[in-house]
């Protein structure tokens, strides 16, 4: 039940027009400057990402002048992530868009920001997904969008709801920037600490001294190559051990096995470093399970007098360098010899421990921020569900 002063309307009833942007090929008209062209990849949930804007020449654009955007238009992705919507800001007034749906609302009936939020809400997403057309490539068309039923509050309440939700958007955006900054700072710190360009202080307060040793990975760690059990042994009844086959069984750099195997071939222990040995090669994670490892994984553990966390951080730093290590060739897998013959430089055990502690703390700070972000998004989602349906009213 919606509040009595709310008016359930179809989107088509409050829109001047709902049309598709330019659908003809534009590659021949791309230019270094001219008329801006927004594509699906520029449309994010609630905002326009202008990090990769294309331009088309004016001659081409004039052929489609009836499609020009106005500030306040709502753009909705048709394919790929159908339903994802954002409001066109003033800076893109008179720009063009490629294949997205354009909704232009009637004046003084509904706020674009409010309607856009409704389309992006759980209700809007479920409605669009239930009406998606197409096979493997899902899409939403104008006729589906026109029939979206929206419980519409008075304009004053729309403004207040949009303002409240924008506060959450700002908190989410701020946290996302903090996460990105923290990741960049950690990346720079890894480059300095794991190459010896920056030395930390020892327990006496003096910088560590002495040359680092260049060694093969086999000297400082043991690497166990996985071996896949027979598929007939796979089960979901917890019989045997969890099975880690490859990247599909890793989430947020931690093991996340999906099935079990009653036939155990090779094993990893809790705390082992998991290295993907098949495309994409080099992805690093930590095992949180005693598990069976398939042929897509190698389990690595530091030898005595070497620090496991240091080795984990070094392999993280080296992760994007695997292609260069392979001399630039396109490779689908690495073998035991490739891993064991990998060269790295290592300081003393004490310095390894110090470096590992600093980088591990940086990871924990990032994880804390990421958890805060997840909480904010979940809280905003719950609030949207209440505000956009009238279950929770706001004071005007």
From TrEMBL:
Record SUPFAM superfamilies: DNA methylase specificity domain
Source taxon at top rank: Bacteria
Family: Belongs to the type-I restriction system S methylase family.
CDD domains in the record: RMtype1_S_Sma198ORF994P-TRD2-CR2_like, RMtype1_S_SonII-TRD2-CR2_like
Protein name: Type I restriction modification DNA specificity domain-containing protein
Keyword Ribosomal protein: no
Organism: Alteromonas gracilis
Boundaries of every Type I restriction modification DNA specificity domain copy: 3-179, 211-378
Keywords attached to this entry: Coiled coil, DNA-binding, Restriction system
Coiled-coil region: 359-393
InterPro entries: Restrct_endonuc_typeI_TRD (IPR000055), Restrct_endonuc_typeI_TRD_sf (IPR044946), Type-I_RS_S_subunit (IPR052021)
């Amino acid at each position: 039940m919606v509040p009595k002063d709310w008016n359930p309307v179809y989107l088509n009833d409050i829109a001047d027009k709902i049309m598709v942007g330019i659908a003809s090929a534009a590659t021949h008209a791309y230019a270094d400057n001219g008329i801006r062209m927004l594509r699906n990849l520029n449309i994010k949930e609630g905002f326009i990402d202008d990090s990769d804007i294309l331009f088309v020449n004016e001659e081409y654009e004039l052929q489609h002048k009836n499609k020009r955007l106005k500030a306040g238009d709502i753009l909705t992705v048709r394919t790929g992530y159908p339903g994802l919507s954002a409001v066109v800001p003033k800076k893109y007034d008179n720009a063009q868009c490629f294949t997205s749906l354009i909704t232009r609302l009637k004046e003084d009936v509904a706020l674009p920001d409010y309607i856009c939020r409704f389309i992006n809400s759980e209700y809007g997403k479920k409605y669009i997904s239930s009406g998606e057309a197409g096979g493997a490539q899902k899409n939403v068309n104008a006729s589906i969008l026109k029939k979206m039923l929206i419980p519409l509050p008075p304009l004053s309440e729309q403004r207040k709801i949009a303002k409240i939700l924008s506060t959450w958007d700002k908190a989410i955006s701020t946290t996302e920037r903090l996460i990105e900054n923290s990741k960049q700072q950690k990346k720079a710190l890894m480059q300095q600490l794991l190459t010896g360009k920056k030395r930390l202080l020892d327990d006496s307060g003096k910088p560590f001294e002495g040359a680092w040793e260049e060694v093969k990975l086999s000297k400082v760690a043991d690497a166990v190559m996985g071996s896949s059990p027979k598929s007939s042994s796979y089960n979901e009844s917890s019989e045997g051990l969890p099975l880690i086959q490859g990247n599909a069984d890793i989430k947020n750099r931690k093991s996340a096995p999906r099935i079990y195997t009653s036939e155990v071939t090779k094993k990893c222990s809790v705390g082992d470093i998991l290295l993907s040995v098949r495309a994409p090669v080099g992805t690093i994670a930590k095992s949180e399970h005693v598990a069976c490892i398939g042929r897509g994984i190698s389990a690595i553990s530091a030898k005595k007098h070497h620090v496991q966390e240091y080795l984990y951080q070094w392999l993280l730093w080296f992760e994007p360098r695997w292609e260069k290590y392979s001399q630039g060739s396109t490779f689908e897998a690495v073998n035991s010899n490739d891993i064991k013959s990998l060269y790295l430089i290592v300081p003393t055990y004490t310095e390894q421990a110090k470096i590992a502690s600093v980088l591990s703390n940086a990871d924990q700070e990032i994880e804390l921020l990421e958890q805060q972000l997840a909480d904010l998004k979940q809280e905003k989602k719950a609030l949207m569900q209440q505000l956009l349906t009238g279950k929770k009213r706001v004071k005007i």
